Amino acid sequence: MTATLITNIGELTTNVARPGDALGTLHEAAVLLEGDRIAWAGAASDAPHADALGTVDAGGRAVMPGFVDSHTHVVFGGDRADEFEARMTGTPYAAGGIRRTVAATRAASDEELRRRLKGFTRELHAQGTTTFEVKTGYGLTVDDEARLARLAAEVTPEVTYLGAHVVPAEYSERRDEYVDLVCDEMLRACAPHARWVDVFCERGAFTPEESRRVLAAGMAHGLLPRVHGNQLGPGEGVRLAVAMGAASVDHCTYLSDDDVAALAGSSTVATLLPGVEFSTRQPYPDARRLLDAGVTVALASDCNPGSSFTSSMPLMIALAVREMGMTPAEAVWAATAGGAQALRRTDVGVVRPGARADLVMLDAPTRVHLAYRPGVPLVHTVWLGGTPL
């Protein structure tokens, strides 16, 4: 088993909370990696020494857990740059654009989709993301949804079945038949490749009653629930997610006091996706309101070709700090430990013995630089399962 000691770390973010410091920050620190796990972390002066150890000198740089992106749609065909350009000249965002990507994805070969997916995976890793979720939802036939789930499973264990993304055009007059398909044959084809079931509970997508049925069917097949909710306006998505015990409800742009209270009294994570608001010019979610109420908040990219075509978690951190009322420490936690909670993972998003050796070294002395220097490529080194990329 290979062992590597990363030493001379100026600032180590562990996410092992201590009194007054939710990020468990250590200075002049070191981390020992053994195989694909973290074996030890602490003060550099206490670091273990052995001839067999390889050593990496961090040179005073900051080290932190790899980013955990709990919401992406990175298996798809086609491009929607023209929609983005139209939005920038005043055309409002609408969920119906998803159908364009559905058509392009159905027309793409497995090899084309696999090639693009591998490219996005490299892009995520290069920006410090070491754990990421991938949704289906751009096939919307039994065979196409199954192949998207199968391809996604080649790059991540966090695969989400999202047959309930929108009702495809060929079922526009037969909604009930499509919901039947999502809950039965399509689900049975996708479940062997997936861990999660998701539904877009929103006007223009699926009603609360339809959404509840989809989630219940997925759960009956052993999938864990998550929800897209309250993105385009007020609705029942958040309260449905809480009632169904969903790990996460994502977007949360338009929330009532009852929604916030429901989240605060639950284990459901509010996953905020500021790349969407950046790309669609919608109002940003009020992260400060959620945090002050005691809600667990995660940040994710929602990387997709329509409403947020970015895979940059550093950008999400910068937007959350600048536009959503989060402190740099809160945003970093939400992009690492928060994302891990949204995926119900305890082995990522944290630097402690036994956790996966997924780390990011920044070319900066502190994590604050992720928000302080937006748009600058600050990721110096990424370790994925103990291996530098």
Automatic annotation (TrEMBL):
<feature type="binding site">
    <location>
        <position position="80"/>
    </location>
    <ligand>
        <name>4-imidazolone-5-propanoate</name>
    </ligand>
</feature>
<feature type="binding site">
    <location>
        <position position="302"/>
    </location>
    <ligand>
        <name>Fe(3+)</name>
    </ligand>
</feature>
<comment type="pathway">
    <text>Amino-acid degradation; L-histidine degradation into L-glutamate; N-formimidoyl-L-glutamate from L-histidine: step 3/3.</text>
</comment>
<keyword id="KW-0963">Cytoplasm</keyword>
<keyword id="KW-0479">Metal-binding</keyword>
<dbReference type="InterPro" id="IPR005920">
    <property type="entry name" value="HutI"/>
</dbReference>
<feature type="binding site">
    <location>
        <position position="165"/>
    </location>
    <ligand>
        <name>4-imidazolone-5-propanoate</name>
    </ligand>
</feature>
<feature type="binding site">
    <location>
        <position position="304"/>
    </location>
    <ligand>
        <name>N-formimidoyl-L-glutamate</name>
    </ligand>
</feature>
<feature type="binding site">
    <location>
        <position position="138"/>
    </location>
    <ligand>
        <name>N-formimidoyl-L-glutamate</name>
    </ligand>
</feature>
<feature type="binding site">
    <location>
        <position position="71"/>
    </location>
    <ligand>
        <name>Fe(3+)</name>
    </ligand>
</feature>
<dbReference type="InterPro" id="IPR011059">
    <property type="entry name" value="Metal-dep_hydrolase_composite"/>
</dbReference>
<keyword id="KW-0862">Zinc</keyword>
<dbReference type="InterPro" id="IPR006680">
    <property type="entry name" value="Amidohydro-rel"/>
</dbReference>
<protein>
    <recommendedName>
        <fullName>Imidazolonepropionase</fullName>
        <ecNumber>3.5.2.7</ecNumber>
    </recommendedName>
</protein>
<keyword id="KW-0369">Histidine metabolism</keyword>
<feature type="binding site">
    <location>
        <position position="228"/>
    </location>
    <ligand>
        <name>Fe(3+)</name>
    </ligand>
</feature>
<feature type="binding site">
    <location>
        <position position="231"/>
    </location>
    <ligand>
        <name>4-imidazolone-5-propanoate</name>
    </ligand>
</feature>
<keyword id="KW-0408">Iron</keyword>
<feature type="binding site">
    <location>
        <position position="71"/>
    </location>
    <ligand>
        <name>Zn(2+)</name>
    </ligand>
</feature>
<dbReference type="Pfam" id="PF01979">
    <property type="entry name" value="Amidohydro_1"/>
</dbReference>
<feature type="binding site">
    <location>
        <position position="302"/>
    </location>
    <ligand>
        <name>Zn(2+)</name>
    </ligand>
</feature>
<feature type="domain" description="Amidohydrolase-related">
    <location>
        <begin position="63"/>
        <end position="366"/>
    </location>
</feature>
<comment type="function">
    <text>Catalyzes the hydrolytic cleavage of the carbon-nitrogen bond in imidazolone-5-propanoate to yield N-formimidoyl-L-glutamate. It is the third step in the universal histidine degradation pathway.</text>
</comment>
<keyword id="KW-0378">Hydrolase</keyword>
<feature type="binding site">
    <location>
        <position position="138"/>
    </location>
    <ligand>
        <name>4-imidazolone-5-propanoate</name>
    </ligand>
</feature>
<feature type="binding site">
    <location>
        <position position="307"/>
    </location>
    <ligand>
        <name>4-imidazolone-5-propanoate</name>
    </ligand>
</feature>
<feature type="binding site">
    <location>
        <position position="73"/>
    </location>
    <ligand>
        <name>Fe(3+)</name>
    </ligand>
</feature>
<comment type="similarity">
    <text>Belongs to the metallo-dependent hydrolases superfamily. HutI family.</text>
</comment>
<feature type="binding site">
    <location>
        <position position="73"/>
    </location>
    <ligand>
        <name>Zn(2+)</name>
    </ligand>
</feature>
<feature type="binding site">
    <location>
        <position position="306"/>
    </location>
    <ligand>
        <name>N-formimidoyl-L-glutamate</name>
    </ligand>
</feature>
<dbReference type="GO" id="GO:0050480">
    <property type="term" value="F:imidazolonepropionase activity"/>
</dbReference>
<dbReference type="InterPro" id="IPR032466">
    <property type="entry name" value="Metal_Hydrolase"/>
</dbReference>
<feature type="binding site">
    <location>
        <position position="228"/>
    </location>
    <ligand>
        <name>Zn(2+)</name>
    </ligand>
</feature>
